[in-house]
# Entry
Amino acid sequence: ALALLELMLERVMFAPQSTRADIRVLGMLETTGLEFSHLWICGMDENSFPAQPLNNPFVPPAVAVRYGIPRATPAQELDLARRQLRDWRRSTTFLRLSYTHTIEDSPQQASLLLQSLQAKTLDSKARHPYWQTQPRLQLQAFSDANGPALDTSHAPLDTPGGAALLQAQASCPFKAFARYRLRLRSPLEAADLPDALQRGVLLHRALELLMSEFPGSEALNGVGANDVAKLCAEALQQLPRPLPRHYREHEIKRLSSLLNRWIELELERGPFTTLHLEKTFALQVGSLRLQIRVDRIDSSDGHWVVLDYKSGKVSLSNSRTLAQDEPQLPVYSLADAKIRGVYFAQVHQDNMRLLGVSDPDAQLHNSRVLPAEADWQQTRNHWRRDLEKLAEDYADGRAAPRPSAAACAQCHLGGVCRVPFQR
# Structure
């Protein structure tokens, strides 16, 4: 019940308390009972004042008249208009009533109720003195794709964002500037059940618990179905609110199925030992100092390899342009000099695989490896130069939008950049 109440409160928009203001814009009915120093009523033409009866389509007019439903007849509207006019005259010493002289090219006349007032008649076509015609202006357009540069005099700069910052800069510089310089983050919406992002986090947590409990190929050989189900149930406990029983059971089955299939792929790799889980490194790239977190580091045949879990589908095209297109793996390759390979670990129901770049001596069995530029060290040096270029572009404030299918698919900044992706 408490979780349901919290969800309801998150979804209800409460109007904030209004602050004191010298000028207020109100509806006609909102002026009831108030006093004013000056009061200006608009829309006092014969078609708007008195207003038309409020006929409810679900209540026949005869029923409304019979039971005296307010504002159901022209007579009631006329009586209301007269009372409003009387109250307005009593509420202020300065009352001005106005109407527009044309509506959609149709001339308008003042309401007949205003004839009883002793008011000065103004020219219906009079213009405010500030309302003056201007010659047609020639608008000037210019492009400013740069924001203010960071102060790099005390480099390296501790910069939030980690590898995701360089990923955003490579995908769309404007996205990186908006997210990490302007802090224009997408708000999370309240949901009854975990969304795709939370389900991916649950999978990461289950995999972390698995490798923490069974850190290596030898330990994984003894994992049973009950062990996997227990770990998946433990991963679900990190959610902020409990799940319905049937959904929880289904989610445990889903996670268990993925982990069991993944264990089969892990055992085909040959002997390995898991050294680090969720390991944090401080990495300097150009003038930026980033805090990056690596999902997992294994020792395979004496070589360190990085595994980054992906619950969605991934693809890599060319190791030479990897730092420019998908810089996450190149960033991880620079975390430690002992690292000899970087892999995406795709844990997806349609495809389980390891995909990455590595030194030939550190290639994992049954993995797809992109050909390196020359040798592993030269590939890492090439990646570092590309990553430093991305870091310097970010520090210099380069923020030109670069629309693409990948960059714009889940982006919430379209109303800010105003550059649509053209297929």
Notes: The first helix runs from residue 2 to 11. The radius of gyration is 34 Å.
